[in-house]
Amino acid sequence: xxxxxxxxxxxxxxxxxxxxxxxxxxxxxxxxxxxxxxxxxxxxxxxxxxxxxxxxxxxxxxxxxxxxxxxxxxxxxxxxxxxxxxxxxxxxxxxxxxxxxxxxxxxxxxxxxxxxxxxxxxxxxxxxxxxxxxxxxxxxxxxxxxxxxxxxxxxxxxxxxxxxxxxxxxxxxxxxxxxxxxxxxxxxxxxxxxxxxxxxxxxxxxxxxxxxxxxxxxxxxxxxxxxxxxxxxxxxxxxxx
Length: 241
What we know:
This protein is mainly α and 241 residues long. It has 10 helices and 2 strands. The protein has helices at 4-28, 40-62, 67-91, 101-119, 124-137, 161-166, 181-199, 203-206, 211-218, 220-239; strands spanning 145-146, 151-152.
């Protein structure tokens, strides 16, 4: 099942992502001052985009049909994430992407698809509330703690790439786009459990279609993959190396 208004929302998120990454390139590669971008406002903007994408992805997975289809899509997205890691490590090492958003989304799709027969036994409201609470409990796990620093975690957990992939980020790790399984999978699962309520929403809402945004939303992967190379070509022409 595909709801038009979800594609339009995804289109809005994609446009925000494009603008945010353009500002990031201008600020951190070309040293152009963008007032407020490097402060709390820029951080909130970035978090809204990320959280929106992850929630929406969880919602859409439950509407996406059979387990086989979910697994197929998860493998495709995961492999695109690996491809981006490979390319950035070779051609853009200083801004390399390891365990980026596509790797995370592909992993979450695969895990959720494999566990769906168990997840569907959990009442949706309880599942959404529990996962949303767990997301906030684990939000600071990358920095060695739970509950925003109230509970410190053992330093021995923070070693190795696999633990970094899970969320226990090793001290020397760098990625310009890092989304570990913890805490973000809990936000993804929040979307998964919210999905039945979205599906039952009033038809006047679910049939909303904004053609341009709907098109962008339906082709979000293409826009994600193409935007940074295109930005780099344009900005290099405008500003030089």
